[in-house]
Amino acid sequence: MKAMILAAGLGTRLKPFTDHHPKALALVNGKTLLERNLFYLNQYGIKDVIINVHHFADQIEEHLKQEQYRVLNITLSDERNEVLETGGGLKKASWFFDSSESFVLMNADILTNLDLNRVISLHQNSNALATLAVSKRISSRYFLFDEGMQLRGWRNQKTGEERITTTTSVMEEYAFSGIHVIQPSIFKYIHQEGKFSMVDVYLELAKTHLIQGYDHTGSILLDVGKPESISIAETYFK
Asked: How do the domains of the chain map onto residue ranges?
């Protein structure tokens, strides 16, 4: 199985660190977020990883020359000219993935102890186009799922914006955890070009395909996107 880590973002919430560095190289107890997530994937036998780069891309290239990464097969997807967001970044890297094997997509700025094998197993034993790790936690934006954990919509609590793909009697809110397991066949359905979000892709495809959620409420999931979140992460990840 292969994976992609999304590391191209500007990381504006992590200023002032990201004024001079990419967010993926923020340190938690002496290890970068990128290192922690590469070896998180490696725990589950995933050694072939593509990483998209934009903001201070040269620093990531240099960092990956370190000795510990030689056990992995790492490829970079260069977005120096324009950051393409989650959807555009994945589409640009589509050539990297095998045509018949599901793959993992994850954000560089999260840390978790989620059992990835369980997400992969659920996905591979279903006919889902994508399986999204989600949990019950406070957020400003939520995916909406029915009683069978099938994606039915999205809601922004701050703005009141709501996008419903199918109305059902149950529309349960779950916060997205930034980890996806995806079928490579998804690429033939992605018609967007340039810069776009996977949220838009999923909400469109959920009208005609199974996009499901995996509830991992109770697992540790930290969005290490703000300076104060670094110290919180250091209490969990040694």
From this structure: 2-236
- Please state, in angstroms and as integers, the Cα–Cα distance from residue 51 to each residue in 14, 90, 192, following that order: 20, 10, 21
**Span 22-74, pLDDT tens digits:** 999 999 999 999 999 999 999 999 999 999 999 999 999 999 999 999 999 99
Coil, strand or helix: which one is 148? coil
Provide the CB-side half-sphere exposure for 156 (13 A, CA): 7
Report the length, in residues, of the chain.
238
The closest of 63, 183, 69, 51 to 108, measured between CA atoms, is 51
Q: Which two tokens stand for residue 165?
A: 């793909």
Please name which of 123, 125, 113 lies closest in space to residue 44, comparing C-alpha atoms: 113
- Tell me how far apart the alpha carbons of residues 230 and 220 are, in angstroms, rounded to a whole number: 14
Q: Are 107 and 221 in contact (CB under 8 A)?
A: no
CB neighbour list of residue 99: distance below 8 Å, 6 or more residues apart: 184
Collapsing DSSP states into helix, strand and coil, what is residue 156? strand
Q: Is 11 exposed, middle or buried (0-12, 13-18, 19+ CB in 10 A)?
A: buried
What percentage of the chain's residues is helix, strand, coil (to nearest 5)?
A: 30, 30, 40
What's the pLDDT score for residue 226?
Answer: 81
- What's the pLDDT score for residue 225? 80
CATH fold, domain 2-236, is Spore Coat Polysaccharide Biosynthesis Protein SpsA; Chain A (3.90.550)
d(CA 59, CA 78): 13
